[in-house]
Predict the 3D structure of the following.
Amino acid sequence: SRKAANIISAQIIMKPNCVLGLATGSSPVGTYKTAIEWYKKGDLDFSQVTSVNLDEYKGLSPENDQSYRYFMNTNLFDHVNIDKHVLSFRTDWKQILTKPAVNTMDHSQTGGVDLQLLGLGHNGHIGFNEPGAAFEKETHCVDLTESTIEANKRFFESEDDVPRQAYTMGIKNIMQAKKILVVVSGEDKADILKEVLYGPITPEVPASILQLHNDVTIVADEAALSKIDM
Ligand code: GLP
């Protein structure tokens, strides 16, 4: 988490008005906590940063504690001096700036993502781009696979409460980010991480496309790296 926070911090120091593409899930939580600590110490300043969110469940209101907007607010935005978050996908594929709650904008209006943070799904998904998703897709609505519903039900009261659809940046949007940072932890990600990095580049393993990006950093713990000979 500290290594990933260092990379985000370096990005903000090098370009204070950068655009960060931010992710949810359990993997980046420690990274956000660390960034908050450094902000509180006065080492990080988010005042000129714009953030765009990677994905969001369809049909959950921002107040719903399972929405990704709520996640970003509680895990990062409420604790730092960030003004511009582009958090919520709307059906017209535009996103809403919530703070200040006035403008709407889409990804292209941000000037492009400087640093995209990603977690990795057990089936190789990034954002909610599930296996089989076309690499050329931009922001779109997806039907979640059973394995993703299963993996994410831990955050909900019951499996029935997990939304069946979500909005996600497409692979094309993700690949357009200037830099990509992937955080991966746990033994349960070891097989998929190896496949992502060394297997064939195929839509069946969405994250395998990252092999073609020219600036990707993987920050992983030993358990997640355990299947890779180093
Ligand atoms: C979810 C999110 C992804 C996230 C993935 C991994 O499905 N849509 O953006 O990267 O799960 O989550 P975790 O980090 O909790 O394993």
